[in-house]
């Protein structure tokens, strides 16, 4: 899908405020309400805009520990990567998982109730025999920037 400057303005506007009204979006992008809304719906239908989310303060929730986990697999065949990725998808404590190039295979962002819960999760991962050769744990002490875009 080819995006023009109006599409890009719609995307930027929605990234900053996914709750814009039809009229407010029109004012931001410089079109009338109906065409700007139609473009928004086209961006959604074509998978350019994939969803809307609320950013919730972690402090407003129960205390949680975030851990960045670096993982290297023992073997690097396609089936090994697939087995690991399938297992990680099913683990609710995993917030994000990135496959990376270089000397490491994956970085995972994991959130648990406390460090003990994290260690129990690691023990489960190792017991699953999903190919983990080694892992390193980095405790997140504070978020400097925590946005996906």
Short structural description:
The chain is of the alpha+beta class.
Plain-language structure description:
The protein has two domains: 5-45, Arc Repressor Mutant, subunit A (Orthogonal Bundle), CATH 1.10.10; 58-139, Lrp/AsnC effector binding domain/regulation of amino acid metabolism (RAM) domain (Alpha-Beta Plaits, 2-Layer Sandwich). Helix content is 39%, strand content 20%. The chain is built from five helices and four strands. The protein has helices at 5-16, 22-29, 33-45, 78-89, 115-127; strands at 65-73, 94-99, 106-112, 132-139. The protein has a four-stranded antiparallel β-sheet with strand order 2-3-1-4, covered by helices on one side. Helix 1 packs across helix 3 (33-45). The chain is elongated. The two termini are 20 Å apart.
CATH level-3 fold name of the largest domain: Alpha-Beta Plaits
Which percent range describes the beta-strand content?
Answer: 15-25%
CATH superfamily assignment of the largest domain? Lrp/AsnC effector binding domain/regulation of amino acid metabolism (RAM) domain
Taking pLDDT < 50 over at least 5 consecutive residues as the criterion, the unreliable ranges are: none
What strand line-up does the widest sheet have? 2-3-1-4
- Any idea what the CATH architecture of the largest domain is? 2-Layer Sandwich
Helix/strand structural class: alpha+beta
Average pLDDT reading: 91
What is the number of beta strands? 4
Query: What is the count of structural domains?
Result: 2
Q: Total number of helical segments?
A: 5
Order of helices and strands: HHHEHEEHE
- Structural shape: elongated
> How widely separated are the two ends?
20 Å
Q: What is the helix content?
A: 25-40%
The value of Rg in angstroms is 20 Å
């Amino acid at each position: 899908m080819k995006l023009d400057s109006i599409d890009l303005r719609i995307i930027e506007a929605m990234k900053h405020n996914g709750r814009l009204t039809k009229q407010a979006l029109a004012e931001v992008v410089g079109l009338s309400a109906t065409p700007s809304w139609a473009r928004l719906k086209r961006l959604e239908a074509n998978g350019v805009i994939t969803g809307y989310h609320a950013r919730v303060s972690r402090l407003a929730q129960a205390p949680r520990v975030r851990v960045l986990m670096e993982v290297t697999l023992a073997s690097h065949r396609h089936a090994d990567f697939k087995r690991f990725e399938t297992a990680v998808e099913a683990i609710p404590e995993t917030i994000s998982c990135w496959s990376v190039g270089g000397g490491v295979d994956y970085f995972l962002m994991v959130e648990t109730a406390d460090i003990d819960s994290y260690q129990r999760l690691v023990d489960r991962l190792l017991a699953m025999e999903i190919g983990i050769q080694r892992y390193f744990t980095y405790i997140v002490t504070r978020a400097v920037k925590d946005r996906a875009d």
